[in-house]
Amino acid sequence: PFGGVAVVCAGDFCQYPPVAGSALYSLVSSYANQTEQEILKRLGRLSWKTVNTVVTLSKQQRMKSDPEFGAAMQCLRTQECTYEDVDLFNSRV
């Protein structure tokens, strides 16, 4: 679907949804009376659904020199912070 060109998509599903519009993985309204924006949403969703290989990176490389902070950031990302994590963040302000 991309003219023989390899496409690499990167993202973080724990982030907030897009400010304007909708995420590519969200459902699209019915076919009737589509606006140009809805057609673009549908094309984006169809492109997203053609992805057949997913590689999930699970090892934190950016903060490997500070594993305590890296672990706290992972907890923050998944909304599982402890009071110790909060204390650590506050100590760096």
UniProtKB/TrEMBL annotation:
Lineage top rank: taxon: Eukaryota
Protein name in UniProt: ATP-dependent DNA helicase
Lineage: Eukaryota, Fungi, Dikarya, Basidiomycota, Agaricomycotina
